[in-house]
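Example record used in the benchmark description.
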Amino acid sequence: MTETTPGHATKTPEKDRAVTDFGIDTTARSTSEALRDYVARVKGGELGSLPALLGLIVLVILFGALSDNFLTLGNLANLLAQGAGVTIIAMGLVFVLLLGEIDLSAGTASGVTASVMALHLVSGGNLLGSMGAGVFIIFCVLLLAALALAAQLRLWSAGIAPLIALVIVVIGVGPNPWVEMLLAICVGTSIGLLTGALVSRIGIPSFVVTLALFLAWQGVILQFIGNGGTLALQNDTIFAVANGNLPVAASWVLFVIAAGGYAAVVLGRHFSRLRKGLVTQPTPLVFTKVGVTVVLAAVGTFLLSLNRSQSSLITITGVPYVVPIILVLLVGGTYVLDRTSYGRHIYAVGGNAEAARRAGINVPRLRASVFVVSATLAAVGAIVYSSKVGSVDPNAGGGTVLLYAVGAAVIGGTSLFGGRGRMSNAVIGGAVLAIVNNGLGLLKQPAAVVLVVTGIVLLLAASVDALSRRRATAGR
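Model output (structure tokens):
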């Protein structure tokens, strides 16, 4: 409706003018309309993590029915630690996959960082003596090259890592668990700088570069550890990363911080959009989403706070340390991708690299940076899975580690074609693979069956991704 007054121009009421100017951005939706819109998006190919979540539920029900031990408290806690290392590596791979690239070297790169960490620990900080003069000099030269590449790529924050690593190894800092873990992460970042420069500056396809590095890093691990050798991580702090638990009181503090923070962010954003007249999900749906998440977190914390030891002489309670580690990485990575210009640029380049370049985005620098993120998180994953087994051997990061990490990201909903994916996809996909391996192990299935089933799950996820993308393209 419009109002007119003699001698004055036609005036539009504020409410109508807002709808006219912004259309659906200021149009409120009912719960039923929001649900219909979601169903329409799913039919249009925007599946997100829905297939993985449904698969997760089916797998839990299936293995819970087939094995009496699957839903025990001890096994559920063990599941969290079993899949944590691969899940963290998958989180880093999400950044690479969002650009439509691939990092086949993430697994063996994580093995290199684990072997450096273990070698520095067992040698008392004397890498020169344990590596030999020739290998040590090459190692330091590569760190210097990574530092130079960080400056050339203008990745200033990443350049701090090889500098720290150089200081630690040249000075010969004594063994300390925190120094060892810091060294592993810094070496991982340095590896990412080398990989990113080869892909972004020289222009070699990422598949070729990372396949070559996959083989090269495997050789480096053999050089550091020796064929058939093993380096034991005999340190309580490192061992506790994947095997330790928070005290019960600290577990509930973690629940309050995590669940309360999640509720505050989601509800705060929702009511902020309502005040500004912007479109948002219906309030009942938002409250339901927050309520279900908080309740599930509370139930999980309560169960993990119970004694899950099978021995009357030992008490095992509390949330495993890997849970807050993954939560911190998940929240941090999600914030970077969703709320920063860097994250928006990643999605833009993944959607259309040429359009992003013309819009002024430094595509080579961005492409290099995602390999830095991938290798850095691969190092964190290496710390976790090395802590779980308590040692590092020549197979560290090899075998199925990379395949499971890529599979976790894809199964969770990250597209192999770029431009679509979230950090939570890696967590969901990692949970699916951990449950498959754990459940089949409890059923005493041979390794052949585990690999076949895992391959089928990954193939189904890739098929869903391709079909949903085709459907979404056809619907435009």
